[in-house]
Amino acid sequence: MSAFQSAYQEEQQRLQEVIVEIDRQLERLRGIPVYTGHDFTEQVLEAGREEKRQALAKSLPEPYFGRLDFQENGVGERKRLYIGKVGLDKEEAGEYPLVIDWRAPVASLFYSFTGGTEPASFEAPEGIIEGLVYLKRNVVIRKQILERVSDTYDRESGGPAVSDEFLVYRLGENKDHRLRDIVSTIQAEQDQIIRAARNTALIIQGVAGSGKTTVALHRLAYLLYQYKEQVSADKMIIFAPNLMFLDYISDVLPELGVGDIQQRTFADWAAEQLDIHVTSQDRLETMAQWFEGDPRLGTPDVDGHTSGRYKGSLELMKLIQTCVETLEAGALPGDDFSPWDGAVLPRETIAEWYFKEYRPYPLAKRKERVLTRIHRWVEMELKKSPSAAVMKERKKKAAQREKSYAGKWPKFEPLALYKMLFGAVKSSGLWPEELTSAIPDSVKSATRSDLKQNVVREEDLPGLLYFHCLLNDIASDQRFDHIVIDEAQDFSPFQVAVLDMYVRGHSFTILGDLSQGIHAYRGVHAWEEMSSLFSEENTAYYALTRSYRSTMEIIEFANRVLENGVRSDLLAVPVFRSGDAVRLISYSDPAMREEDIKQAMRALLEKEYRTVAVLTRTLQEAKALHAALNPEWPELNLIDGSEQTYQGGLSILPVYLSKGFEFDAVVMADADTNHYADKAWDAKLMYVGCTRALHELWLLHGTHVPRYVDAEPSEIVAKGWPPA
After folding, report:
1. pLDDT value at 406 more than 90
2. For residues 403 and 608, what is the distance between their CA atoms, to the nearest angstrom?
C-alpha cells in the first residue's frame, strides 16, 4: 500500500470518529430543553450550552483543516494535533482537545513552522514551549467528505522544508463573489501580523494580492480570542472604502465565528458622529473630477495645496487646535453678570470657575457648567428677595438676562466654527484673521463657496470631527477597542489622528499599498505620514511582499509596470503558480474595438471562469461599452460606484473602482496611450487593473501602448489572439 493511500485511510478513519463524536455531543445538547426563565445562573448555563451547540453545528461539515504531530521537549510521546476554525473538546477529560482552535497558542506552530530538523517553539501563557515537529498535514473536508490529504512536511521522509503544493492548489481555485477566510493557508509572515500585540498601531504595506484585508479580518478574530476579557466585538470597527467593498468582505468574519463587528465607511461614521448629512454623490463627483477628464492628458497633478491633501493634513489639524485655544482664551464675556439691578456676580468669580475649576472639561461642557453654576447662584440670590412679588419680578428679569448673557458666548458647534475658519461666516473677532491666512487661497475660496450653500464634502469631515472632539467629551461607549483601516493609503494623516482619539491604546491595524495609491489627491504618499502620529513603542511596520492572488506571469508583468512607470521598489514576489502569458492584443481597426472586446470575452467565458471583468479607463466609457455588450450578455453588471452589493459573475467597471476586488480573468480595454498617459499616477491605475486578475489578463489596445507596458513577447507576454 502506498504512503498516500495509508495516510488517506488514516485520515478517513479519524474524520469518521470526529463526526460521530460531534453528532453525539450535539444530540445530547439538543436533548436538553432550552431554558427561558429568569434565574441568572441558569441563563448563564443556557448561554454556554447554546454557544456549544452553535460551535458543534458550525464545525460538523468541516471539523478541521490541518494536522500537526508535535513532541514537546522532555514531555512524553508525540501528539497528533488537529487544527480547525472552531475548537472542540472531548466530553471526557483528555490530554488535548478533539480539535484545537486555529487561534490557540499551539496552533501558531501550524503556521509559523517553515521546515527543517531544528526544534520549533511557540509562546504559551506559561512561557516558550519547544519541541520537534514530525508532520504537517493539510486536509480538505467538504460536507463531511475527505477530498484531499497533502503532507507539506514529514520529518521521517527527510523533507527539508514546508512545501507550497497545498497553497498552490488552493490558490488555483476559481473565485466567487465573496472574499473567503484563509485559516487553512495562513502563511508565517501573515500569522506574525495576526498574532501581534494588541495595543499597537500596526502599519502593513502589502503588495496587491498579499492578503492584507483577509489578514486584518483574521487579526480581529484572534484579538477577540486572545483578549476575550478586555475587548469585545461590538467595540471593534472596520473602515473600508465603500459599501460594495464591505459587502464583498462581509462573509469572512461570520465564517470565523465572529459577529457584531461594525463595518463602515469613514464618511458614514463621521457624519453620524456629527449628526450631519454627506451624500455619496460627493464621492462620485470627486472621483469624476480626478478620473473622468480627457485620458490623453493623464491624471491631474497633486501638491500640498490640493484641497483633499490640505484638508487631510496635520497642518490643518494644528491650525484648528490653535483656533480652539484662541477661542478658549477669549470665550468668556468681558462683563460682570447682573441678573437684576443691585445684584452682581463679578467676572473674576466667573473666570475662576471657567479657567480653573472647570478647566479639565472640554469647551462645550465647560460653558454648560459655568452657565449652570450662574443659574444656581441666581437661585440662591432669589431666596434673599424681600417678598414673593419682588421674587417673581426678579426671576422674570433674571431669565431674560441669563439668556442674553449666554448669547454673548461663542457657539461651540463644529460646523459654525468650521464655517468661520474658511470665511463662510464672520469670525466675530474670536480669532485674528491672520491666523487663517495659511489656508491656501484656492482651498479657502472653494470651501467657502460650498459652506455658504451648506454643502459639506467628505474631505471636510476630519476637520469637523476634530472640532467636535476638542469641544466635547468622547463618551466611553463611543470608544473602540480596535480599529482596522483598509486601503489606508487613501486615508489622510488627519483622519487617523482623529480616530486615535476614539480608540483605546492606539490599537490599530492600518493596511494598504502605496503602489495602489490612485487617490493621491487625498491619501498618503509615504507611510511615514502615518507612523509619525505614534511614538516608536506604540507602532510597528510590516511588509507583505508575497502575492498569492495572481499567476507568476501576471505578477511579473505588473511589477514591470511599477518599475518602468512609478520607479517603485515595492514589488511583489509571486508564489510559484504558473499560468498563461499576459496577452496584448492590438485592435484590428479602431472601428472594430467593440467587436474585439466581445471576442476576448467569448474566449475567456468558454473557460468557465466564475468571475470575469472588463476594466475601462473612465466610467463614461464603461457605460457606453455596457450598452454595446449588454444585448449579448444581459447578466453583465455595470459597476458605477453607487452599488451597495457586489454581484460577482460578469462585470464592467472603470479601473479606478476596481481596487480591492479580484476576478478570475480581466480584460483591460484601451490599454493605450490615448487612455493612460506617461505619468506615475496613470501607471498606478494600470497596475491596479492588472493585479485584479487571478488566472488570465488580456490587454486590448490601440496603436501605441504606454512606455511602462512591456509589450515585447517573452515568457510572460504573448502578442495577438491565442491560436484557434
Report:
1. yes
2. 73
Q: Rounded to the nearest 10 degrees, how much is the dihedral formed by the CA atoms of 247, 250, 251, 252?
A: 130
**Cell triple for 14:** 479519524
Whether the pLDDT of residue 236 is over 90: the answer is: yes
Question: What's the chain's Rg over C-alpha atoms?
Answer: 31
Question: Which whole-number Å values give the CA distances from 111 to 122, 150, 206, 208, 456, in the listed order?
Answer: 11, 15, 19, 21, 47
CA-nearest of 188, 253, 264 to 223 is: 253
Residue type, 644: Q
Sequence-ordered alpha helix ranges (H) in 459-575? 461-471, 493-500, 528-531, 552-565
Give the per-residue pLDDT at 172. 62
Under 8 Å between Cβ of 701 and 670: yes
Give dist(CA 307, CA 443) in Å, integer: 5
Check: CB of residue 671 under 8 Å from CB of residue 699: yes
Distance between CA atoms of residues 684 and 695, nearest Å: 20
Among 185, 190, 184, 240, residue whose Cα is nearest residue 210 = 190
**Average pLDDT of the segment spanning 364-371:** 94
Going through 45-144 in order, the beta strands assigned E by DSSP cover 66-72, 79-84, 100-101, 120-124, 127-142
**Alpha-carbon gap, residue 232 to 432, rounded angstroms:** 46
Q: Strand 717-719 to strand 582-586: parallel, antiparallel, or no bridges (unpaired)?
A: parallel
Length in residues, the chain: 724
Write the pLDDT tens digit of every residue in 505-549.
999 999 999 999 999 899 999 999 999 999 999 999 999 999 988
**What is the CB neighbour count within 10 angstroms for residue 528?**
12
Q: Which residues are CB-contacts of 196 (< 8 A; sequence separation ≥ 6)?
A: 202, 219, 540
Phi, psi of 17 (to 5 degrees): -65, -40
β strands within 116-229, DSSP E: 120-124, 127-142, 145-154, 201-206
Please tell me the chain's helix, strand, coil percentages from 3-state DSSP, rounded to the nearest 5: 45, 15, 40
- Sign of the CA dihedral 598, 599, 602, 604? negative
Give the strands of the sheet with 201-206, arranged side by side: 262-264, 236-239, 482-485, 508-512, 201-206, 539-544
CA-nearest of 210, 204, 186, 211 to 113 is 186
Q: DSSP state, 458?
A: G
Q: DSSP assignment, residue 222? A: H
Which one has a higher pLDDT value, 20 or 167? 20
Percentage of the chain exceeding pLDDT 90: 66
Helix axes 266-274, 461-471, angle to 10 degrees: 40
Please classify residue 192 by burial: count the beta carbons closer than 10 Å to its beta carbon, then call 0-12 exposed, 13-18 middle and 19+ buried: middle
pLDDT tens per residue, range 83-120? 999 888 877 655 678 999 999 999 999 988 888 888 99
